[in-house]
């Protein structure tokens, strides 16, 4: 989403609210943009920032060509600052540091924009610092806070912000976007079931590790349905050496979850439009003859439990062994 008219296709309300305030020259001091991953928070923040500095705007659309637009796009504009959590939270020191930078670099203009990613990670102290910022009348400061979790932003901040609610992403539209960018239809189905973040999806699409992960998932399911006694060995010899990091293991569970859902859909018969792994359909359909519907439901439950155990820091090998036993039984 590089223009307001593109934003309007996906987030019509947000686009209208913000472009109206630009047209009427009534930009808020603070915006709180809240929406799920992949709904366009950062793109909207960038567009708004460009609007405030662009040297050659066409109506509400920034030109994308001028020095200011280019510097904002590359994250190098002296008056546009990005803040994100340092570890688990955004700390008061980060905001202090920012204020210092602002006071040094006030040469170009009085206008300052700061974009705060994961604003729900602001500590109370940091949030109070920002409030002070917002109340400073001498500066034309605009704060753009982004969050997936607006409810955890303290009310004193919320009440000072114009709140922009983004709509959840339309899965069908997202799939189309992926296909238009060159992702195959089959892969677009899988990727859009795993994430709603465009950049994440396209990078996985080109990722050798991810391609191998898909193959291993299909092999494991074949094993469960044809030679379940060998699954344990496969887990140790192949699975755990590929899914090493916690994030990778989680993705392995997500792949298994989607595949077992597919198998359940085959079982139910008339839900084939829901199938995610269309290119491995034969193997998964065959597996649907081995497992009862009841068994499939208990497997889905077991995979979700395994994901939770991983989050609770249970050792990955143990989690995977337990899951294998549950599926074998
Ligand atoms: Zn421009």
Structural key phrases:
single chain, 329 residues, alpha/beta, Rossmann fold, Zinc Finger, Delta Prime, domain 3, 5-stranded parallel β-sheet, 16 helices, binds zinc ion
Outline the structure in words.
The chain is of the alpha/beta class and 329 residues long. It has 2 domains: 4-165, P-loop containing nucleotide triphosphate hydrolases (Rossmann fold); 207-328, Zinc Finger, Delta Prime, domain 3. It is 57% helix and 8% strand. It has 16 helices and 5 strands. The protein has helices at 4-10, 12-23, 41-53, 67-73, 92-104, 124-135, 155-158, 171-180, 185-194, 198-205, 208-226, 231-242, 246-268, 281-287, 293-311, 316-328; strands spanning 30-34, 80-83, 111-116, 140-147, 162-165. Strand 3, helix 6 (124-135) and strand 4 (140-147) form a beta-alpha-beta unit. Zinc ion binds at residues 54-56, 62-63, 65-66, 68-69.
